[in-house]
Structures are given as C-alpha cells and as structure tokens.
UniProtKB/TrEMBL annotation:
This is Aromatic compound dioxygenase. It comes from the Eukaryota. Residues 123-285 form the Intradiol ring-cleavage dioxygenases domain. Signal peptide: none annotated. GO terms for biological process: catechol-containing compound metabolic process. PANTHER family: DIOXYGENASE, PUTATIVE (AFU_ORTHOLOGUE AFUA_2G02910)-RELATED, INTRADIOL RING-CLEAVAGE DIOXYGENASES DOMAIN-CONTAINING PROTEIN-RELATED.
C-alpha cells in the first residue's frame, strides 16, 4: 500500500510488469490487459479466483452495457453497506445472504455426505460472546417466549458418539428479535454454548423461535423493496457444532408449518432440516426439564451427524479440482 515518507508518497515497491501492455484505449484492450496482469498473482488459487472474477465481471459490464450512473449508484450502495456494518451487525453478510451467495457457497462446500446433518447459512447475528451453559440449562432468560427443550446426540457418520463436542446455539425471542437488535444489550440472551456428554448427548432449554424480518432499515432492506421481495425468514434455531477431527458444522433447524419455509429471504432452508416440534403437556415433565412454571412445552429432538475431517477434505478437494478443470475449459 502506498504510504508517506518525509512528506512524499511512497509506492508499494512492486516494479512494472515484465511484459509490455498496449495502451488501454478500447474495451477489448482493457479486459485483455487485466487478464495479463492476473497472471502475476503468485498464489495459484488466488490467480484462479481472480481470473474467473475478471472474466465474469467484465462480461457482466459488457452484456448489460452498464451506464456510468448505474456504476456510480452501485458504488454508493456498496459504500452504504460497509458504513452500516458494526461489531454486532454485518450488512455485507446480509447482502450475500439475500443474493443467495451465502447459501450457494455453503452448499458447494458442504454437500450432503454419508447421512451427515446438512449445513445452513450462518446469518448475520452470530456473536462470539455466547455464555457457557451446562447440559439441561437454559439459553434464554425467563419471559422470552414459549418454552422449548432441545435434545439429541452428536454422532459420527458411522454412529459413533462424539463426546465433548461444542454445541453453540442462538435464536430469536418471541418478538422476532435477536439480542443484538435491542438498543440496550447488557448481556447475551437466547444464545449459549454447551458440550455433549460422554455418550454424545446434549440438551438445553430454549424458547420457540418465530418468523422474523431481516433488518429492513439499511441498504439491503432498500434493495429488497426495490426488487419486490419480502424480507422474512421462517422460524429457526441456529447451531454450530465443533469437535476435534470432524468438519465444523453450521446449521439450523426449521420447525415445520411456517409460512416462509419455501421463500426464505436468505435461501437457508433445506428439506432435511425441517423438524417437527412435539407438544408436551405434563407438569411433572416440565419441572423435570427445568421449566419454572406451567405444564406445557415444545420438544425438539434431533441428532447431529458430523463428517470426519479427512473424508470432508478429500471430498472437497475432488470437487474443487473438477470445478477448476471445467472452468479452465470454458475460459
């Protein structure tokens, strides 16, 4: 990056390219020069990504005859996206989500494999400050919504229990808000981090999540209004599971029957992740599960199946190599 030294601008130290470039006085020459310059990229993967990015980006500009005004509007839009980001709000992730890019990257990197639990998008509301909770404890403070108990086992694809797996989970409250969306957030709520026991079991108290609108007060919200799309997500419970030797899984469970299951604003729903909530009406069972009052709660039971890291790495490498070959042929 250029800097300043004794009041003078300083270059980044990289010399001119070791080849001659024609003056970029036509669209074709501009694109051809950019392709030549991508070959200077020392890292093979970065060079491959940049070459394809240039090909598609320049093709888009040509095919649409992009106007200067449209380009300027796009730059201003992306600037607003960046300015909207804060330590607890990620508008760029939200933009990626509503364009289907997050779901596409997730699907390519985590194809269904050997009966493993499928992944889903991370979403923009994950935080690093989830409190540690013990099995059976609650991730939600009292009054945050209808009681729900979540339980299952963390298993390998061959059925072997995985002990001490980290299960991080977060959700909305009954108002359709994550804790980070409240003006006053004195502590994390409706989120927690626990570990599976020696038999792979995990369980915790939560609340039934509700369908909610993704933030509509920023540039992404304006984008959806401009293209005639709703900004609703079906109700869901986020989970992120990690264990040594296994591929990290980011997923979510979607209770059946939600109005927005088929038109999720961020394309996160997969058929295998739609779950049934059982209604338990038994006061003794409610007390046993740790709920302080009432006789009714919802029960979500679902095992989580992880893929060993070596199998996941092998599968991804094979798919990436095949994709690279196909891309090289098409360029």
């Amino acid at each position: 990056m250029a800097g300043h030294d004794d009041g003078k601008a300083v270059a980044n130290g990289i010399p001119p390219p070791p080849f001659q470039l024609p003056t970029p006085d036509s669209p074709d020459v501009i694109t051809a020069n950019m392709f030549k310059l991508t070959e200077l990229t020392p890292d093979d993967r970065k060079r491959f990504l940049l070459r394809n990015l240039v090909a598609h980006l320049h093709s888009f500009v040509r095919e649409t005859s992009l106007t200067t005004a449209e380009w300027d509007q796009t730059i201003k839009f992306l600037t607003r996206v960046g300015q909207t980001c804060t330590p607890i709000r990620q508008e760029f992730i939200l933009l990626s989500d509503v364009l289907g890019v997050s779901a596409l990257v997730d699907a390519i990197n985590n194809p269904p494999e050997n009966g493993a639990t499928e992944s889903s998008v991370l979403g923009p509301f994950f935080t690093e400050d989830a409190p540690d909770v013990a099995n059976g404890d609650s991730i939600a403070s009292e009054g945050k919504g209808e009681y729900m108990y979540v339980e299952g086992r963390v298993l390998s694809v061959d059925g072997t229990p995985i002990p001490n797996a980290t299960v991080e989970t977060w959700e909305t409250d009954a108002n359709g808000f994550y804790d980070t969306q409240y003006t006053t957030r004195d502590r994390p709520d409706c989120r927690g981090r626990l570990h599976s026991d020696q038999d792979g079991h995990f369980g915790y108290r939560a609340v039934v999540p509700v369908a909610y609108p993704i933030p509509g007060d920023g540039p992404v919200g304006d984008l959806l209004l401009g293209i005639g799309r709703h900004n609703m997500r079906p109700n869901h419970l986020h989970l992120m599971i990690e264990a040594p030797g296994y591929r990290k899984l980011t997923t979510a469970f979607y209770p059946e029957g939600d109005l927005y299951l088929e038109s999720d604003a961020v394309f996160g729903v997969k058929k295998s992740l739609v779950v049934k909530l059982q209604t338990i009406k038994d006061e003794a069972e409610a007390r046993k599960r740790g709920f302080p009052k009432g006789d009714t709660f919802k029960l979500l039971q679902r095992d989580i199946i992880l893929v060993p890291e070596d199998l996941a790495a092998k599968a991804f490498k094979e798919k990436a190599e095949a994709a690279a070959k196909n891309a090289a042929v098409s360029l």
